[in-house]
Design goal:
Layout: H1 2-17, H2 19-22, H3 26-34, E1 38-46, E2 55-63, E3 69-75, E4 79-89, E5 95-100, E6 103-105, E7 110-113, E8 119-125, E9 134-141, E10 147-154
Bound molecules: copper (II) ion (CU).
């Protein structure tokens, strides 16, 4: 949890540094930037064989603010593209990946990204990931600066 707060502060700091440029609209932005508080935990990315160019990332997020915060997507240097996915039941009873436009995190609730459910889909990995290493993913929400966090590569 400590590192989450550190990164969040860094995000706020960056927002403050950019403030002079945004001066005319600052009053409207201020409430959106510093109100929501998210606790993000258990971040990991699945280790895949070097021949695989896709993998998935997982984490748990708790919204401790009193307003819904929506996850819009994520970015990372280790993949060419990223999408929010879930596993949805098909008519034939199987489950398939399906893209989500966004994922709302209701006030006071915890949403889990876990195998078999919601996940961060990473496409076109730029290099093989080694088990045990940490890679940075930046989660982008509608009402906060991005949360850039270390995700552990696990099997
Ligand atoms: Cu997927």
């Amino acid at each position: 949890m400590t590192c989450v707060r550190f990164f969040n502060r860094r995000g706020v700091l960056l927002a403050l540094l950019a403030l002079p440029l945004l001066a005319p609209v600052a009053p409207a932005l201020a409430g959106e930037i510093d109100e929501p508080e998210l606790l993000i935990d258990n971040m990991w990315v699945r280790a895949v064989p070097p021949v695989s160019s896709t993998t998935a990332g997982y984490f748990t997020v708790t919204n401790t603010s009193d307003e819904t915060v929506t996850l819009l997507g994520f970015s990372t240097d280790i993949a060419g593209a990223g999408e929010l996915h879930t596993m949805a039941a098909q008519e034939d009873g199987t489950r398939r990946m399906q893209r989500l436009r966004n994922v709302p995190i209701p006030a006071g609730e915890t949403v889990e990204f876990a195998p078999g459910g919601h996940h961060l889909m990473l496409f076109r990995l730029v290099r093989p990931l080694e088990e045990g290493e940490q890679v940075e993913l930046c989660l982008e929400f509608d009402a906060t600066a991005p949360y850039c966090l270390p995700f552990e590569v696990r099997r």
